[in-house]
Amino acid sequence: MKKRLIDELPDIAYYAFDARAKTAAEFRGKNADLVEDTLSELNRLYTAEMASVMYGADISATPRFDAFALFVRALEALVSSLHLATHRQAGESLVLMRLSLESAATAAHICSCKKALAQYGKFTYKSTSAISNAKKIVPIIGELWGSISTMAVHVNLGHGPYYQPSEDGEGTVGTIEVPLAEKRSAPGQDEIMLTLISLISNIDLRLFEETLMEKSPAYDGWLQMPGTQHSYVCPTEELISKYHDKLVRMPDFFEAQSSTPGPERSAE
Q1: Spans of the chain below 50 pLDDT
Q2: Do 81 and 96 meet the contact criterion of CB atoms below 8 Å apart?
Q3: Of the candidates 255, 227, 204, 248, the residue with the CA atom closest to the CA atom of residue 55
Q4: CA neighbours within 13 Å on the CB side: how many for 260?
Q5: Would you state the pLDDT for residue 158?
Q6: What is the pLDDT of residue 161?
Q7: Per-residue pLDDT at 186
Q8: Residues 6+ apart with CB under 8 A from 25
Q9: Are 186 and 257 in contact (CB under 8 A)?
Q10: Would you say 110 and 116 are in contact if contact means Cβ atoms under 8 Å apart?
């Protein structure tokens, strides 16, 4: 029987796992130092959360218990976002970054507002109010959340083909990449994604500090886990400024992607 062309197609297991594993390995090898930096920032949030449990911080009653669960979810979302970033699935990674921001912001809101807590308990809570409230603690969170929403959550031209000028300069050529092997990196994309994850990790940590820690009575400028004698200090606000400043100096890859003109379209 003559072999069909479709028989040469890699099976779905290769597409779902092996091709992405190759991309992730290439990503980590190419960006080893940046990946380590990002893991170090995630470790700050991870350590703060786990230490609260290990040292018996007072988080067992509502709303602090619910808030702690949301902060754990925020960390989980960021770690999953990192995995997707190493697969060079930028849009999907950004969706989880937004979920992380919303989870941490909601945790902070339900601990500071009885109305928000009541809405949260009745499944009527709107996450946009969490972001508005979190701006009091981290002013840049609103702009960041809005940009991620525009780039990745709301479907637009940036989710479709990648358009670039044709070789003759007379038009545009659209490309749709199906990653059956290592997925290529657009210029600057890897560093932007890792920088975003580092930034959001520190924003989440700052909200965690404000929500589930208190000022240390013994050490000026330090925080203390409530109900314990364990103190904690981290230059979180400085780190937020560091990664935000780095991000705004980068070429705006996502804006360039979404604004690259495609062929003219008309609605019918």
Answers
A1: 253-254, 256-268
A2: yes
A3: 227
A4: 19
A5: 64
A6: 75
A7: 77
A8: none
A9: yes
A10: yes
* pLDDT at residue 254, as a whole number: 46
How many Cα atoms are found within 13 Å in the side-chain-facing hemisphere of 98?
21
- Cα→Cα distances 193→16, 42, 110, 145, 184, Å: 21, 14, 29, 14, 14
Amino acid identity of 188? G
Give me the amino acid identity at 103. S
State the pTM of this model.
Answer: 0.87
* Cα distance between residue 111 and residue 95, in whole Å: 25
What are the respective helix, strand and coil percentages of the chain, to the nearest 5?
A: 60, 5, 30
Burial of 34 (0-12, 13-18, 19+ CB in 10 A): middle
CA-to-CA dists, residue 200 to 86, 189, 215, 249, angstroms:
17, 17, 23, 17
Residue with tokens 């009745």: 122
Q: Taking a C-beta distance cutoff of 8 angstroms, is the pair 177, 265 a contact?
A: no
**DSSP codes joined into one string, 142-194:** HHHHHHHIIIIIS--GGGSPEEEE-TTSSSEEEE----SSPPPPPTTHHHHHH
- Measuring CA to CA, which residue among 120, 122, 86, 84 is closest to residue 102? 120
